[in-house]
Amino acid sequence: MYPSSHSLTSLTDRSGLLLGADYNPEQWPADTWPEDIRLMQEAGINLVTVGVFSWALLEPREGARNFDWLDRILDLLHQGGIRVCLATPTASPPAWLGHEYPETLPVDTEGRTLWYGARNQFNPSSAKYRNAAGAITESLARRYAGHPAVAMWHVGNELGQVSYDDETALAFRAWLTRRYATLEGLNSAWGTSFWSQNYGSWDEVLPPRKAPYLINPSQTLDFQRFTSDQLLSLYCAERDIIRRYDTATPVTTNLMGFFRGADYFAFAREMDVVANDWYTDPADPDSHRSGSLTHDLCRGLSGGSPWLLIESATSGVNWREHNVPKQPGELRVDALSAVARGADGVCFFQFRQSRFGAERFHSAVVPLAGEHTRVFREVADLGRDLQALRHLAGTPCTAKIAVLFDWNSWWAAESPDTPTNRLQVLDQLQAYYAPLHRSGLAVEVVHPSADLGRFELVLAPSLFLLAQEHADALDAYVRGGGHLVVGPFSAVADSNGHLACRRFPGVLADLLGVDGEEWVPLGSPVEVRMGEAPAGHARIWAEDLALNTGTAEAVAHFGEGRLEGRPAVVRNQTGAGHSWYVGADLAPEALEQVLADALESAGIPYPLAAPLPDAVEAASRGGHLFLLNHSCAPQEVLLGWASVDLLTGATHGAQLTLPPFGALVLKEPGLKEPVPKEPVPKELPPTEHSNLQNDRNRGTA
């Protein structure tokens, strides 16, 4: 990351928490712009993202530039006290680029060109695309660096494109040459002696295009790594162009949570601000828990620093098969969930609902029905809530529990040649996360290379691929007094996806005190017992395990079938710490019992007097406990202590009732009163930037 001066602090020092939206003024007549700014002020919006999809307007034909409209809107926004996250428009190239240079268009696995007419129609490896993207980025950076409205830069949009064309094949070969140096190294890493796949020339090496049968899993894994690196290089190239003209303003792009197409730990190292898109599904009663896990990932990506929810929906979206709108109050609790888990700002896509185009049915801050609507009123109410919580900007969320996650392992684990496609990585993460979420325990999602010493309990629900150095770090962590829980089908493969020639779980077998002989995908449920008591059933997965050390003990075993009496969960002591290996997809109640054992052993207390209802979320930040009801029914919470709600000043007892979609932000015991931030004026004086400084800085395009 860049120095700490390139952070959200530069935006939140004066305003506190941010409320924002994607703003697309080019979709509307210029005479509506002053009214837009009035509505932003009315809603409490203090940050808007501008220009994401404006390339065709900024460059109507190759080499031309049209900045007059952008000059005007940036100046108007500055005069209205609205700061701007200025985007490079490179996610959606203009039609002329694809028409004149079809090599810039992506090609799918079957060799079919994906044409313009939508968005994302670019090939990340195309030199022509990269040159065109760099040129428009440089024009923007040269012209608007130093503009007083620009508080942050936004590179591209949801970088996730992939292509299998010939130019990509050349770039892939170059990437492989840097990684393996020689064809001998490549053939060894890919295990090409299997199925007569040996390569005798670099020209023979291709992306994993459609083939008659299963593709080499090591080839596919490397292509996923390569594609992630190509996308990251697009971000870095545009960021570096911006840096030549603007050395102070933070630069970011919008991530997409647990998006499979790119390694966000690598991205986060290059970003000044971790910014993420999250769209709750109002039709899914567990969506809020997926959101919490995603927010905890963002905090892990940012190294514990504040992050930005840069896209979310005020109500329904347009891209699901059945787009259920949010219920009254749901917008508020969704937004406060992100703040509770470390976000210093909440932004919506988009500010004004589109009349035309593929997202015309997507909700917005200002619906087509106008400002006198429930959605707009709720956004304005949220703006007032965020002002009441403004002193929380920059405050940390402290977690004693880490969940390990690695994109490389995810890619490798879900190869089509594995014993089952039902043991999905994200399902495993959710299964281990859910009991902690119901207990209000704070979690941070981190990479296996993270500093584990700051955590008292580490969970590894799914680490199919585990490097020796990361296994050594886990061993040192446990020997030093840490506590570790490892989920099934972990430590199976090395960094090339090759299986270990030993009993599993490979490089962790000695630490975990277990030897595995065979993976056993299940055709029917198998009972699991803890001691003599039934503990539900494994339904998808089991493993044939044995203890391999005198310190290991089976804390659960299979109660029937071919594995009857064999260990299902093994606990081991190594040095001053303890580990657990879970060799099955345990029933929720059994997994909760294993985690409770680990929590007790680690000395981690439960923060609440009783577990929460499934619909309720609890998270602590800056000495305040957020209690959020994500359902349309009242929910009872046994808190265990009396407190005062920061949002209303009301006092609540040790037991309380949250109304439907209710939210409380309670002062935790022993909290010192915060020093309030000074309020930000509604409007700033008109700027002369466009008349004086801009003319000097912009020059010619």
A few lines on this structure:
The chain is of the alpha/beta class and 701 residues long. Helix content is 31%, strand content 18%.
Describe the protein.
The structure is a single chain. By secondary structure, the chain is α/β, with parallel strands linked by helices. It has a domain at about 400-600: Rossmann fold, CATH 3.40.50. Helix content is about 30%, strand content about 20%. The strands form six sheets. A nine-stranded parallel sheet has the order 5-4-3-2-1-9-8-7-6. The protein has a nine-stranded mixed sheet with strand order 11-10-12-13-20-19-18-15-16, with helices on both faces. A three-stranded antiparallel sheet has the order 21-22-27, covered by helices on one side. Strand 8 (about 305-310), helix 12 (about 330-340) and strand 9 form a beta-alpha-beta unit. Helix 7 crosses helix 8 and helix 11 crosses helix 15 (about 425-440). The protein is globular, with a radius of gyration of 26 Å. The model is unreliable at about 1-5 and about 680-700 (pLDDT under 50).
> Beta-strand level of the residues, as a percent range?
15-25%
In terms of per-residue confidence, which ranges show pLDDT below 50 for 5 or more consecutive residues?
1-5, 679-701
Q: Which class do the helix and strand fractions yield?
A: alpha/beta
Could you name the CATH class of the domain at 401-602?
Answer: Alpha Beta
CATH architecture type of the domain at 401-602: 3-Layer(aba) Sandwich
Estimate the mean pLDDT confidence.
Answer: 94
Q: What distance separates the N and C termini?
A: 30 Å
Continuous helix count: 19
Q: How many E-type strands?
A: 27
